[in-house]
Amino acid sequence: MAWVAGICIALFLLFAFPRQMALLIVLLVVAAVAVVALVSESNQKAAASRAREMALVEITARGDMAVCSDPLYPVVVAFVNRSPDRILNAVSFSLKAFRPGFSDPVLTAYALRSDRIMRPGETYLSCWAKPVGQFPAGFTAQNLSWAAEKSSITWQ
Asked: Is 109 left (phi over 0), alpha (psi -120 to 50) or beta?
């Protein structure tokens, strides 16, 4: 019920003092636009900063029995810390397998995490289990295309 009283008071003031209320409305609109612009700029800067940090860590994946000889862990994932001066504490990522020439993944694993601490410039290879599910008929870890996608990184 208070909102009805507020609307009545605002209408009274608008008609009783039209110039002053018009000025107040213009000032409120300008202030609102300024706040929206500041928040938008802040969000863009934060997103750009996050993208720059994410670009400092490279992750690649492939099926390679020469590197990963255990058939339960046939996928080699390579992590590279490209930061010139920061130590990497952990990387969270997803792993996807694709049939060559196709865009829909046939196997996917989310919420994977490597907590290997990596110095600047360091590369780390590790063997990972294939995502849950069966390989498509006629395919193995070696003849599928693999993609690893970072979801978050943690710096020391």
From this structure: beta
DSSP letter, residue 31:
H
List residues bridging with 113 in a β-sheet.
92
113-125 residue pLDDT tens: 999 999 999 999 9
CA atoms within 13 A on the CB side of 110: 2
- Return the domain boundaries, the chain: 2-51, 57-155
* Angle (CA) 94 100 103, round 5°: 55
Judge whether 148 and 95 are in contact, CB under 8 Å: yes
* pTM of the complete model: 0.75
Instruction: Provide the b/e sequence for 36-54 (b: ≥16 CB within 10 Å).
Output: eeeeeeeeeeeeeeeeeee
pLDDT tens digits, one per residue of 21-39:
889 889 999 999 999 999 9
d(CA 39, CA 62): 41
The residue behind tokens 């865009």 is 103
One-letter amino acid of 104: D
Question: What's the CA gap between 110 and 92, in Å, rounded?
Answer: 9
Q: Is the dihedral of CA 37, 42, 46, 51 positive or negative?
A: positive
d(CA 151, CA 137): 30
